[in-house]
């Protein structure tokens, strides 16, 4: 096989299926025809690449063949000119068996936009945009469908966008997956990497199942993907999950950003059903934000959960019984796993106030606060080492928590779980502070709870930090009855305890003489090393070029400081030039004209999995800089006293593809100059990612999105700014799509020296650009200033294609609430509150603008509007969903 030649076929929207298809000048018209030709003529002889030119292809693609050679479907790698597969109808093109696992709910005749089944050779799908945006219920032949599906096939799925995969029906009526990967026959492997699943609102974004009647074997690697659920919770009846897996023989889930999987069904970012008993599995270096549960393990044992950053509402890491068990069988427990070095923080989500099972609310007003950081309600011999957990009613709960999904076993016809939690140990963890439960819940919070649901036993929780050097609060604590430490329940062995906050992943004292500098320690470090930094100031520039290294302060209460050396010419205090590097709880002082932390290299090369957690960045031209070809997370970071950008994500003139970064729970604060030159967060030149649950204040511009696509801003506060959000194109031909703004607060300060103050400004600076914005449930709180404009869309004399879709927004307190310039292609602005503005709306374009079905402050047409506007009919009451 090694000596055979590769055939390249070409497809273009200008092609013809009567062409030979073997040259760019004579391409095929349809992808399916190219696949058919490849299967019939070329794959029996050797590997085939189908090169699909930019454009939109309204078709469904099915691949199946018996040749051992590889097939590659590759689209455009340029995000400005994507290759889009977007059918208007779907017919069943796959046949699936049932593996019997909880999340295997696509059985029989199913459909996929790109469906791959029973291929002997590996299939690669890369650089495609797979969209369900044109599908309607009338166009679906089945309720079981997916964006990309591999059934009994191997291959690679990389650098794709899968979007608009949605279903509004509750679970049981329809099963829709972003990617459906299943093996029920043969042995197969899959690599799923660098994909972007946007605004997903189906059942499971990436569903991985194996087993079945013929015992199929599947191993999978899922890395460096961005998976965004339903940030606005507009489809809350849907039980949506990020990644689900069951029956696999091997699984690696690393460096993924998974956010906004939340609904009354109490859903999870990652869910594992039982895997093959001999399987090895790892969940590491992922960012899981604003999900009901971060990681839910239900029957999988013997794995590793390490170095994840989790922000969750119901449970950060949950280990419970197998669901969907055959009658008479005892559900498998979740046991013998290592849970190490994770940061787990609580933040309320939908499931902190209600839980729904099969359409019925069974728990209401649970606590009003995040419930359990770590929950083990059916699992034995698990080791929890070096984790930081805070912000939950209970940081760790051993037993079936009656507050948390008590009736979940009703989903399973099998025997009741054993609820045996013996042999679990917790050491070198840092607990607290705790969240205060709602007074009506009757719940008492603890750092560690032993619920003794099964045979009474003692939980080993020695060598942990309890929020005080004098240990936890417990009536048996005779060492210091007046301790200010966190409470602990009976049945917990908490002695001895730590008198300091442990660094993440600290497992034991080595007895080694400390290094005098970070550079000296790094010179002897090996991949995966953890460097524990003592309190004090290290005056040096640090370059991390070894993969998997963690730099963490020994104490987050008294963090180490790294200060740029005045004698060094390096541009950054910390330069990250290797994969999977974590900087934890460190204060970084940047050089005046450089960067605090730089993730990247010159020339650009891929650097993946960087994590900045709980750091404080001070000074510099740019606080944090991710340049081309980089991916990572910025969580719980404070950036201040910068001279240009707080956080900059993009090429920064170094070439290559843009960065992909998630910024969450962070604070960016500047010192706003009269000319407003400071910017809080900037995405540019092909960068993508999410900014959520963060505060940006005292800058000229809160967020700039420039010449890039696939950026989501959710639940942020932009205050004391001159302009909240700027979306701008500076390069002709820019394609700026999948820009989502939801649940943000924009509250600017009055103008200084006559500058214009704006809430959201969609600003094409050059012609021939395409801009698509979705804005829902934002609150734009203006100032009645002579130069204040709430939403500005378009630019006079610049011919750009702009689409805006928004509802549930409140625009209030502006000189002009909504201003339209130029001629947007599509403007959907209904079901908003546009109130208490001097001028409610002004259309400065030639074409009429429809602004019907909005609330204008009174149940009648507004009089304070100007230009060619259609405002009737009007709403007679405010929109309740507006922030």
TrEMBL record:
Right handed beta helix domain residues: 118-309, 560-732
InterPro entries per record: Beta_helix, PbH1, Pectin_lyas_fold, Pectin_lyase_fold/virulence
One Pfam family per UniProt: Beta_helix
Name of the molecule in the record: Right handed beta helix domain-containing protein
């Amino acid at each position: 096989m090694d000596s055979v030649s590769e055939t390249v076929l070409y497809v273009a929207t200008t092609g013809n299926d009567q062409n030979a298809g073997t040259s760019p000048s004579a391409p095929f018209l349809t992808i399916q025809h190219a696949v058919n030709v490849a299967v019939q003529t070329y794959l029996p002889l050797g590997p085939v690449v189908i090169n699909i030119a930019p454009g939109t292809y309204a078709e469904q693609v099915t691949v199946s063949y018996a040749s051992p050679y590889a097939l590659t479907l590759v689209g455009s790698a340029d995000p400005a000119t994507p290759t889009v597969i977007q059918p208007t109808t779907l017919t069943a093109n796959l046949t699936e068996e049932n593996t019997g696992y909880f999340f295997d709910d696509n059985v029989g005749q199913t459909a996929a936009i790109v469906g791959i089944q029973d291929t002997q050779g590996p299939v690669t799908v890369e650089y495609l945009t797979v969209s369900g945006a044109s599908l309607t219920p009338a166009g679906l032949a089945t309720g079981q469908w997916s964006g990309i599906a591999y059934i009994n096939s191997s291959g690679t799925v990389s650098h794709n966008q899968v979007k608009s995969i949605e279903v509004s029906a509750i679970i049981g009526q329809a099963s829709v997956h972003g990617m459906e990967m299943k093996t029920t026959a043969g042995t197969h492997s899959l690599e799923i990497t660098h994909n972007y699943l946007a605004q997903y609102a189906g059942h499971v974004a990436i569903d991985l199942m194996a087993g079945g009647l013929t015992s199929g074997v599947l191993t999978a690697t899922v890395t460096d993907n961005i998976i965004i659920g339903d940030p606005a919770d507009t489809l809350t009846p849907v039980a949506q999950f990020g990644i689900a897996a069951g029956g696999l023989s091997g699984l690696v889930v690393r460096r993924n950003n998974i956010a906004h999987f939340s609904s009354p069904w109490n859903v999870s970012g990652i869910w594992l059903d039982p895997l093959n008993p001999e399987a090895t599995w790892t969940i590491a270096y992922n960012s899981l934000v604003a999900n009901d549960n971060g990681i839910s393990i239900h029957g999988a044992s013997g794995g590793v959960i390490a170095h994840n950053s989790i922000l969750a509402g119901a449970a950060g890491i949950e280990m419970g019984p197998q669901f969907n068990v055959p009658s008479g069988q005892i559900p498998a427990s979740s046991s013998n796993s290592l849970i190490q070095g994770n940061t787990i923080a609580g933040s309320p989500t939908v499931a902190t106030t209600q839980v729904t099972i099969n359409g019925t609310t069974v728990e209401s007003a649970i606590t009003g606060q995040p419930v359990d950081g770590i929950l083990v309600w059916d699992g034995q011999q698990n080791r929890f080492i070096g984790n930081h957990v805070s912000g939950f009613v209970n940081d760790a709960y051993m037993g079936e928590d009656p507050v948390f999904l008590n009736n979940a076993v009703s989903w399973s016809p099998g025997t009741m779980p054993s609820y045996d939690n013996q042999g679990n140990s917790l050491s070198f963890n840092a607990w607290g502070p705790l969240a205060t439960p709602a007074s009506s819940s009757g719940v008492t919070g603890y750092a560690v709870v032993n619920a003794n649901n099964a045979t009474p036993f003692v939980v080993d929780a020695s060598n942990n930090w309890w929020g005080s050097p004098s240990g936890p609060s417990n009536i048996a604590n005779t060492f210091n009855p007046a301790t200010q430490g966190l409470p602990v329940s009976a049945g917990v062995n908490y002695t001895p305890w730590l008198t300091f906050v442990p660094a993440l992943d600290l497992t034991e004292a080595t007895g080694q003489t400390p290094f005098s500098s970070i550079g000296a320690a790094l010179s002897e470090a090996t991949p995966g090393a953890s460097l524990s930094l003592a309190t004090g100031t290290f005056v040096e520039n640090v370059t991390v070029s070894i993969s998997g290294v963690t730099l963490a302060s020994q104490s987050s209460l008294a963090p180490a400081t790294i200060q740029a050396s005045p004698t060094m010419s390096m541009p950054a205090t910390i330069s990250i030039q290797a994969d999977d590097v974590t900087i934890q709880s460190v204060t970084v002082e940047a050089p005046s004209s450089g960067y605090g932390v730089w993730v990247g290299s010159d020339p650009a090369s891929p650097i993946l999995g960087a994590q900045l957690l709980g750091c404080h960045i001070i000074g510099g031209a740019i606080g944090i800089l991710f340049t081309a070809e980089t991916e990572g997370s910025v969580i719980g970071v404070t950036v201040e006293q910068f001279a240009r950008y707080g956080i900059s994500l993009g090429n920064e003139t170094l070439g290559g593809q843009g960065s992909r970064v998630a910024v969450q729970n962070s604070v960016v604060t500047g010192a706003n100059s009269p000319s407003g030159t400071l910017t809080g967060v900037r995405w540019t030149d092909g960068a993508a990612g999410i900014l959520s649950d963060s505060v940006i204040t005292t800058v000229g511009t809160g967020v700039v999105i420039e010449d890039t696509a696939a950026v989501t801003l959710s639940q942020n506060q932009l205050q004391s700014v001159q302009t909240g959000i700027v979306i701008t194109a500076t390069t002709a031909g820019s394609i700026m799509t999948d820009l989502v703004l939801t649940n943000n607060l924009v509250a600017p300060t009055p103008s200084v020296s006559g500058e214009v103050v704006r809430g959201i400004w969609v600003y094409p600076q050059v012609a021939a650009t395409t801009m698509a914005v979705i804005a829902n449930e934002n609150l734009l709180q203006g100032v009645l200033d002579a130069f204040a404009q709430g939403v500005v869309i378009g630019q006079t004399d610049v011919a750009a294609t702009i689409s805006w879709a928004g509802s549930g927004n409140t625009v209030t307190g502006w000189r002009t609430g909504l201003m339209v310039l130029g001629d947007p292609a599509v403007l959907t602005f209904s079901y908003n509150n546009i109130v208490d503005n001097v001028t409610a709306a002004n259309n400065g374009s030639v074409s009429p603008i429809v602004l019907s079905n909005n609330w204008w402050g009174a149940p009648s047409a507004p009089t304070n509007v100007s230009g060619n506007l259609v405002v009737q009919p009007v709403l007679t009451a405010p929109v309740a969903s507006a922030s």
